[in-house]
């Protein structure tokens, strides 16, 4: 925990070679949120170039902290928590904290979108540790990440709640009215951003089994909601910045959780009315921007019961059972 990473501290450094996705992937139209199949995963077409560029160019450092998540599992929440946790010495005054005026996504760059987008590379070399995030599954991570001893924080969530959250989000940001049934059918066939969802989770899980020495922590959204203090302490230990006795005594753990809570973040002006743009992305979505509020819907667990029919439950349960069989992993 030595140097601050701030939203305004990144600068465009250099131009990358243009990557041509056409030879390595097969494009398929999926409503407005177009996905491209790439090495067994469905990547949002707009971010494919960034995925490939980061695979080729990104140089991981052993001190990096990389948040790896499938979309809609609580990425925004964990970005807030990680930023507050790692930078807590720099921001002792919670009344003036960067999270009060910035969407968490603006504080933790997304490898494939922010650092490597349309030929621009952002420099985070001054920050240590560097706090980065990606939606790429483990198998697609840059080799330099796999070869480094950087720390990976992996978050996952009940697949049914993940799907419901995704369905709402996609319809909202693309201004579409894709039916629940249609979206569910695609989700079950693996066609979700960075999906198949279960393969995303299992690719990281398998790595943790095959290489127990790999520095990786698994956090489950539902467990974080149920026992936030336990898991925040666990995370701090994992990141080698455990809470001191003094911090424990003055309630730092709860301060961070309150700051990053759904109620607090979703009611901030910046998150109610701001718009999220990724510079240099020419898609309509990123020209218009995504409203910050779309990252904060309910923040609860178990909402799927309000949407799933018995048939949907049976279908997804069957897929999950089949895919996780023999892996030792349980959602
Ligand atoms: P719901 O749609 O179920 O409400 P991601 O950040 O990966 O896109 O995930 C979004 C999900 O996390 C949404 O779930 C969102 O409401 C929830 N979320 C956002 N901020 C949160 C917070 N501070 N605490 C708990 N959940 C949060």
From TrEMBL:
The keyword Transferase applies. Keywords: Transferase. Its EC number is 2.8.2.-. GO terms for molecular function: sulfotransferase activity. It comes from the Eukaryota. InterPro entries: Sulfotransferase_dom. Belongs to the sulfotransferase 1 family. This is Sulfotransferase. It comes from Carya illinoinensis.
